Q: What sequence folds into this?
């Protein structure tokens, strides 16, 4: 037991020192200077040809008509690919991410540039972005509600050890990889610190909602493996989002003093939410529900959600962190969580999240990877991502006394990135830290690592069955 207790500070300490060494060395790398301002480039498709028949449907060019058409197309395509993904035993989110990429310049903009420009004109992208951010805020709120902090406490040692190892190891590998990619791939004017920290956090994310659904679909809920995986992912989610908040604060602040002020304000904000807002919200919600005032209770919750998101955005740690924290502080005793999930999940998952996938797809230009060495770098990013997350989780689980089968399964589940990875990548893209080329590579990495979870679990189950047959 003493050896296990020493493992935690040893692993975190060693990789923490290595990350610091790389960041110090990275300061010596030259920062790319911004090129002279030229004609504005965009990730949207090229201007449409006026000869196409849809150009004569003037009413479709009205902003509201166009927005409704975009949402209809997005819903239909995302739903179709979600069903196809389920057919091959993949989570629906895999198909929806693919649908988003295909509706962007990587396929639709390449094969039908005029129709793509008509359907997703540059001036409409801001509206789609705002809608996607609202959907993400609701979704992060639901993710926060689904986290059961008591489970993390009950299985604190093993779960926290595995989850933190599955963060620090890929974070180190991401920072190490950033050292070699910075000079050629970082956008102009971006410091090595900002680029390296974002590469590190992008490698460290686990998609808790996707993992939870995979565990449920495979009937692992309640089993030792399922419980451990869910607990590890929950601890991973909380830790990774706190680290992301700090990274965003450092990047946005620019200077050390400004970053420290932002971090202090963030700590104060989290403390107030946990110590003051949570008990107030529990009393308010329970009082309204006891009197049969369900709408008043939900109004109080929505107000808390919006104020929390606003406070996080004003502080400089992104509104999504505030929405996530608002979900975490929801009262455990009442049935308000079920009420809110019933009201929000279908709207956010079926309507608003596909908009986010398509907006991400409009930014993903796979055509930029037009040389062999770029695909080699993309492959290296995937290799580093899998080695860090899968390898770090599996080996740590084994060191904590799990069987090899359990360890490999935990590694495969923790390697699932999905939607959460896209959220982080879009934050990095919006802050100007990730170039379009790196962004495209990282989106492909998110898709590949999510896709491989099912086959890896099937492979583990097959090897277990084969072993049992040979034993007989």
A:
């Amino acid at each position: 037991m003493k050896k296990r207790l020493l493992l935690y500070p040893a692993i975190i300490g060693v990789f923490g020192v290595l990350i610091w060494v790389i960041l110090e060395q990275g300061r010596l790398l030259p920062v790319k200077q911004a090129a002279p301002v030229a004609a504005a480039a965009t990730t949207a498709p090229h201007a449409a040809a006026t000869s196409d028949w849809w150009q004569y449907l003037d009413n479709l060019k009205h902003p509201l008509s166009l927005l409704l058409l975009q949402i209809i197309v997005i819903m239909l395509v995302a739903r179709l690919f979600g069903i196809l993904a389920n057919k091959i035993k993949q989570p629906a989110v895999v198909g929806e991410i693919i649908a988003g990429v295909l509706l962007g310049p990587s396929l639709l903009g390449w094969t039908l540039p005029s129709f793509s420009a008509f359907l997703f004109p540059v001036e409409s992208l801001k509206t789609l972005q705002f809608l996607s951010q609202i959907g993400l805020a609701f979704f992060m709120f639901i993710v926060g509600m689904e986290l059961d902090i008591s489970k993390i406490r009950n299985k604190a040692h093993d779960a926290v050890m595995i989850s933190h190892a599955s963060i620090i190891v890929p974070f180190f590998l991401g920072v190490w990889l950033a050292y070699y990619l910075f000079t050629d791939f970082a956008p102009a004017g971006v410091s090595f610190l900002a680029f390296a920290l974002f590469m590190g956090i992008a490698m460290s994310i686990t998609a808790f909602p996707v993992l939870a659904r995979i565990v449920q679909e495979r009937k692992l809920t309640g089993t030792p493996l399922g419980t451990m995986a869910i607990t590890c992912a929950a601890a991973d989610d909380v830790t990774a989002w706190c680290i992301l908040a700090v990274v965003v604060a450092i990047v946005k602040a620019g200077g050390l003093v400004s970053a420290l002020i932002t971090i202090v304000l963030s700590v104060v904000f989290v403390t107030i939410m946990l110590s003051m807002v949570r008990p107030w919200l529990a009393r308010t919600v329970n009082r309204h529900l006891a009197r049969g005032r369900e709408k008043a209770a939900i109004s109080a919750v929505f107000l808390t959600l919006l104020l929390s998101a606003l406070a996080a955005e004003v502080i400089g740690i992104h509104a999504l962190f505030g929405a996530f924290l608002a979900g975490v502080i929801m009262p455990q005793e009442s049935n308000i969580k079920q009420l809110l999930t019933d009201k929000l999940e279908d709207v956010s998952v079926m309507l608003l999240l596909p908009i986010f996938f398509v907006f991400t797809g409009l930014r993903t230009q796979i055509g930029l990877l037009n040389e062999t060495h770029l695909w080699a770098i993309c492959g290296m990013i995937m290799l580093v991502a899998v080695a860090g997350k899968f390898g770090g989780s599996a080996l740590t689980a084994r060191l904590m006394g799990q069987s090899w089968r359990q360890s490999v399964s935990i590694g495969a589940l923790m390697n699932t990135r999905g939607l959460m990875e896209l959220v982080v990548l879009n934050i990095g893209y919006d802050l100007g830290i990730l170039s379009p080329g790196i962004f495209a590579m990282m989106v492909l990495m998110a898709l590949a690592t999510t896709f491989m979870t099912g086959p890896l679990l099937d492979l583990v189950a097959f090897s277990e069955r084969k072993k049992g047959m040979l034993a007989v």
Remarks:
- The two ends are 35 Å apart (CA to CA).
- Residues 18 and 172 are 7 Å apart (CA to CA).
- DSSP finds 20 helices and no strands in the chain.
- Confidence is low (pLDDT under 50) at residues 38-50.
